[in-house]
Write a structure and sequence with these properties.
With 286 residues, the chain is an alpha/beta fold. It has eleven helices and eight strands. It has a single domain, classed as TIM Barrel (Alpha-Beta Barrel), CATH 3.20.20. This is Dihydrodipicolinate synthetase.
Length: 286
């Protein structure tokens, strides 16, 4: 499966644009296998509780949905969990980060296990150290994978050694990568698919890469991954600012980042020609 972490549109003044949010989801959903709301590229940490609820209230996904949960305590997580449950979505949960040094492995087990024990939605672990700066130790992952309400893991680190560990442990949960430049490597180490920012813009070639790998066409998959690598690498460098700029360029309602983040990315001049080339080949959504 290929799932995009949808950006959350704000207007030029930084106000949540729920109409654009709904329109964006409906424009992208036919091209992908599911939707992730409020992931790292969804600026979930920039939203108030009321805004999170309002953004989800306008959504009517027809395919599997996930909601990012990036809280610090179980009490906060319980609120976000209820929002996701009303949408019938799974939750993608990052580790607490602000007081991470005081948490330790036992604290992580209490946190993720506590959310799963609430029983409101299926829990997926989310390792994204570039954003959280918080670890998710491999032994903790192996222990949490035994929980009956924890069904998956997204690893955006790009560290293939971690993917190899997951495969070696036969964890029994769904494994997804969030790192487009190493997508094929992750598949080779047992990933089932990708939850990729690039799939907001150009899901077709990444779906093709997944199909080639599953069909055993390794050489063709390697050639396509090499062709896609600059696109994924540059988008990772530019993050949600570049993603929104690219969506606007394609005529999609991606909106603007919330201040103080800029409307334009310094990576754009290098990324634009790649995006235009993908558009000419019919690979983009817009």
């Amino acid at each position: 499966m290929i799932i995009p972490p949808l950006p959350t549109p704000f207007d030029v003044n930084g106000h949540l644009d729920t109409a654009a949010f709904r329109e964006l989801a409906q424009a992208i959903e036919p091209h992908v296998d599911g939707l992730l709301f409020y992931g790292s590229n969804g600026e979930g940490v920039h939203l108030t509780r009321e805004e999170r609820a309002a953004g989800l209230a306008v959504q009517t996904p027809q395919k599997p949905a996930m909601v990012g949960l990036m809280e610090e305590t179980l009490a906060q997580a319980a609120i976000a969990l209820e929002e996701a449950a009303r949408l019938g979505a799974k939750v993608l949960v990052t580790p607490p980060r602000y007081y991470e040094a005081n948490l330790g492995p036992d604290g992580l087990l209490r946190y993720f296990g506590g959310i799963a024990d609430m029983g409101r939605a299926e829990v997926w672990l989310y390792h994204v150290p570039a954003n959280t700066k918080a670890p998710l130790p491999l032994p903790v992952v192996a222990e949490l994978a035994r929980h009956p309400r924890i069904g998956g893991l997204k690893d955006s680190s790009g560290e293939l050694a971690r993917m190899a560990f997951y495969a070696s442990q036969n964890l029994g949960i769904q494994l997804y990568t969030g790192h487009a430049p190493t997508f094929l490597g992750a598949l080779a180490h047992g990933a089932h698919g990708g939850i990729l920012a690039v799939s907001n813009l150009a899901p077709k070639p990444y779906k093709k890469l997944l199909e080639l790998w599953r069909a055993g066409q390794v050489a063709e998959a390697q050639a396509l991954q090499a062709e896609l690598e600059p696109f994924g690498r540059m988008l990772a460098q530019g993050g949600f600012v570049l993603l929104k700029q690219a969506l606007r360029h394609l005529g999609l309602p991606g909106g603007y980042p919330r201040p103080p983040y800029p409307a334009e990315s310094p990576v754009w001049p290098s990324f634009k020609p790649l995006l235009e080339a993908f558009k000419e080949r019919g690979w983009t959504v817009g």
